[in-house]
Amino acid sequence: MLLELKLNSSSNFEQQILIRLLESWKLFVNQLPVHFDAASSIPFLEDFGTSKFSDFKAYAEILFKSTDFRKSTEFEEGMNSPGILWDRLTILNCKLLFTAADSIHHKPELHRNLGNVLSEIKCVSNALNKSLPAKHILLAKEATTRQHNLTPLENSLWLLQQSNIAMWINQDLLYTVSAQDVQPQRLRDYISFFSVANRIRNTAIENIELFYIHQFQRK
Fold this sequence. Notes:
This protein is mainly α. It has helices at about 10-30, 40-65, 80-100, 110, 115-130, 155-170, 170-175, 185-215; strands spanning about 10, 65-70.
């Protein structure tokens, strides 16, 4: 008797991967002290990312093998391409992890008017489910590491989520203190950190765009 493999839709694949990213990184966020020091948290984040990636990768690979990606001969000419939308979703994951009412990092005086994050995630997810491959990779002007071979989607998404969390936990320097009150070395360290984290983020977005272009156009 032949067993028929039931294929998932690409929209279901995207939804399950997004949930898995959120669940995986929730473990890290919940281990951060309530009054964490951003600079000392980065090595912890990097160690966590390295140690937990294999589980996420194994899950994504199994799911990907049973997924039938949608096809399209059309292209997205604006800002709703898959890579840009995944960037928004991983940022919204950060917002949910750090500002939701049940988060240990929730601060009522700062987070009460941030809106319904789950509703935002649903809207962007719907856009991703209907997205077209990028006609132009919009971050090409940035300093990114252009790959000759396709990078697995799970690798890019993991690094994208990790880099956006890294930038999120360092945003205190931008939003909660005055620049005049920060030591010059702290500012230099932040600029150096942001340069590295943002380059990782941009490279991940570009690789996601390339992955989707390949999936949409494959025979």
